[in-house]
Amino acid sequence: MPSKPPTRGRATPITDQFLGKVFRQVEQLDRAYRRIHRHPTLHVIISAGRSWVLFFFIGIPLIAGSVWLVRDLQTTYVLLTGMPGGSAASLGEDIVRILNLPSYWEQFFHLNLVPDFTAVESCGSLDNLVELNMGHVQLAIVEDGLPIQSEQAPCPFRKQSEAKTVKKAAEHGSRVRAMLPLYLSPLHVLAKKRLAIKDVRQLPLHSRVYLGPDGSATNYVSELVLEHYAIAVERVGRDWDIARALQELQRGTIDAAFFVIALNSDNVQEVLKGSDVVLLNLDGAKGIKLLAPYLEVIDIPAETYKGSAQDITTVGTRTILAASADLSMAEAYEMATKLAPHLHRILRRIPLSELKMVGIPDLYYRLHEGAIRYFTHDPPFFLNPHFAAGLGSYLSVIYVSHTALMQLLRRYRIHRLLSVVDRLVVTSQLDEGKLSGRFYRHQRVLRRKAAQLLRRHRIKLDDFTLISEYLKSQVPTL
Question: For residue 323, what are the CA distances in angstroms to 183, 217, 357?
């Protein structure tokens, strides 16, 4: 009678026919495994039956390390600096030069084992913040606390393809993380002496003023100051760099110029040597600081710049090195550790530098985890809780997978031996239910094979007993 179809809702029982199909699929894999396992080279390295240890504990980490090494060898990290001629642009070249210095292991192996860094000029801090937050770059020199905008107009000083070597989709939240404080950047307001003014509040209406390009900290802070005093000016030079703006100021084509730049910069010092340009005071700096707490009140004593005979009070920003949150904790810690010993040398010509740092700096942007590790003298250990949890899950999956695979192979070997016994009985059958001598010869071979599998822990003692009893049951009784 035909068998009844399985009742709905009940699982179909696993029959010998189904197992036979599964075992036949595994047969080719088992043959390939045995060929590799029996190779003499493999037995020199490990003992028989422990090849999975080599693969999971040596092979997979070696493959992962090779992939990580190839990725780093092919990776170029981008550092956005600032406008051409500015202090951030020149400082960025020094930072990149330090980060590209060969480490001990690079010198030992004569290989470039870390990512390469390249400096790219930009329009300024706001432009850098946008690119950093979008994941287009990994490092940037920015002004701490300035707002992070969602988009920015194209920068005339930077090729768009250069800053997008690592294109990623924008995510919720901010990618901007603070790394290291560098120095304070005062707001310099330069004006022609013919205007006969000493303070920014005295700036005539509709004067031709340079406010920096869009996306720069100069533009943001200068508009904040002019809006505070309700001074309407004619903005010129949206695409000028610092050198072009100072040149136009000396020529007299513009009346004043705003610059957020490091104190005692060479280009500003050179312009103030003349007798037709003066540095203006910002008498309401404390009030602006109260409204914009991320700004700093900075006093510039007389004679700091040659030709400046009065003390100057102004506002300024804190220039920092920022990193993308996409960088790992270990990468950020390594960068901070590599840069810190050289900061004194590269900032030696910049006054108001923040070299005397004690503890974790108080910044507006969130510190990178790697930077926190650096400031707290707590280097990241590879067995941190997250890594340990992942490692435990990895080993658990390996153990479960190995156990299931060994169980399946054990059942396959038993099924295979029993099937051989059945075929041997059929081919050795004689008249009157007797078996030929061929059966008894192959019976000894099968017993010896089963004993070898038992010695190699391929089957269990219960399996060996099952095979032996099955062989005995096939011998006809007299």
Answer: 17, 18, 19
